[in-house]
Structure formats: structure tokens, C-alpha cells
Amino acid sequence: MRLLPLLATLAFCTSAAAGPKDVVRTHPAQKVGAETYVIHGPQGVPSVENQSFMNNPAWIVTPDGVVVIDPGSSVQAGRMVVAQVRKTTKKPVTHVFNTHVHGDHWLGNQAILEVWPKATIIGHPDMIKGARDGAGAFWIKLMSDMTKGYTDGTRAEIPTVEARDGQEFKIGGKTFRIHSSTHAHSKTDLMIEVVEDRTLFTGDNVLSRQVMNLRDGTFKGVMKETERALAVDAKLYVPGHGKTGDRKLVEEQKAYFDALMAEVRRLYDEGKSDFEMKPLIAEKLKAYKNWAEWDANLGPQISLAILEIEQE
């Protein structure tokens, strides 16, 4: 979804307060590693049907506590995540990483702090600035609008600790290495490598079998970060949306982007416009037509690729 010009006048919360029973329906966690769990949310955009929940919250249990990655899209989603964390350990959440500014990944921070108010929340410096400057308010309103008020009561609990490219956080005997960028999916992106576990949490720089919404990012930036994710050579990749897997899921995204950019370049050189390109590219890339968000995002990706070619 697109971060439209952000209006500082938007309120940071809606009028209705969420009650103790307002919790997204249960989505069970999957144990994907010895100490790592992921809730694979349904793919799609926030809606009444999915109650705004559509990302992949994850957590790592360490000897000192729990580290959460992206606790979801609302206080209601975050409470569901908290309940699932508590099923896996009695240890407290000590740290939360937010991979980028898009609210479906971080507005669940509120639920974490309801239970563990001393938890440290970490994010990209530009994500923190953007959230303070209006992105938090924008996403709260957008989630409420798209769920017809289900997420009302959510507050923007913004990260307080910055994470920069190459920085390492030593938490509970594990090394959380930051791979950050300002040119990819949202221009505020973190990928988080758990070095000892050879696991990479990609945020939305990598999705599993989903055509990415790039309205806030750059085509070439995401292609670069896809290659960077492969270069990490992790054993396990946890995408922002879609199923967790090995490097094959990243290679699939790379193959898709490479094929799409090659076709756009070829047709651009032939003088084709974006609307002329779309059916030709859709036919050429029909192997990907069953990916989530194909219909919604293929056209905008073509337009963005043309724009970046022209900027060359």
C-alpha cells in the first residue's frame, strides 16, 4: 500500500478504545527452527475478512528472553501474537525489531508494551522519523478504514532505538546483524540476520510467491536487496509475507524481477507504452500469475520500471 502525502493533522488514534476481548482470530505459530517461530499470515491487503492481519510476525526465544520481529498490524493483531508467544515460552519479550514503516508490520507494538512495557523497540532511523512525522497516524487511519473500524484503539508505539546498516545487537547470546537500505521496498527497510542460526528476516524486501507492492520503493533497489539476501547465504529465509523457506524462495523472486525488467526494457526500446506492455508481459510471465497480488501489482510494477529506465 502507498504512503500518500502524510497529513500531520491526522490523529494518532481513533475514537473507540479497544477492549480486552478485541483480539484477531487465532493463527497458530509454526516452529521453523530450534528457537524460531513464525505466524504466517494470510496474503492480501487488510480487510474486514482478515481483521487487518496479513504479515508474518516471528520471534526467537533466547536464554534471556524473546526477540520479536514485526508484531502485526494493530493492537488486536498484536494481542493474538502475544498469546501465541506465551504458548511457546514463559520468558518475557525483551526486544522488538520493526522491519519498515508500513503499519501492517509494526502497529502491533502496542500489544507487546501492554504486557512487557520495558521491551526495547528497534527500527530504521528513517522509519522512526517517518512514523513521528505522520506515517503512524496515516497507517492507523488506513487500517481502520480498510477494516471498517475493527482496529480502532490502536496507537502508534514508535521504535526508540535506531538500527543502522552493519550494526550488530547482542541479545541473549545471539547476534542480530542489520542489513538496512534506503532505496528498496519502503526506503526504510531492515533485514535482520540471526548469525548463529543462519536465519534472515527479510521484511518486505523479499516476499514468497507474492507480487510486491512497490509504490513506496524502487524497482532497482528491491532487485539489489534481493541479491543481497542471497549473498547472506542463510539457511532459512523468513519473508514479510508468504511461507518461510530456503534460498529457493529468494531465487524465485530474483527470477521474476529479472524477467520483468528484461521485458520492460525490450518493449520500451520498441516504443511501447505501459498499457501496451501489460498484456504482453502478463503472457510472458504467466508462470507467476497465481502469485498473490498479481492482478493488483503487475501494472504498477511495469510503470515504475519504465520510470526508472527513463531516469537512467
Automatic annotation (TrEMBL):
GO MF annotations for this entry? hydrolase activity
Q: Does the keyword Signal apply?
A: yes
Any one Gene Ontology biological process term?
antibiotic catabolic process
| Signal sequence segment | 1-18
Sorted UniProt keywords? Hydrolase, Signal
Q: Which residues form the Metallo-beta-lactamase domain?
A: 54-241
Asked if the keyword Heme belongs to this entry, the reply reads: no
Q: Which domain of life is it from?
A: Bacteria
Q: Which Pfam family name is an example for this entry?
A: Lactamase_B
Q: Could you say which protein family the record assigns here?
A: Belongs to the metallo-beta-lactamase superfamily. Class-B beta-lactamase family.
Question: What is the name of this protein?
Answer: Putative hydrolase
Organism ancestry: Bacteria, Pseudomonadati, Pseudomonadota, Betaproteobacteria, Nitrosomonadales
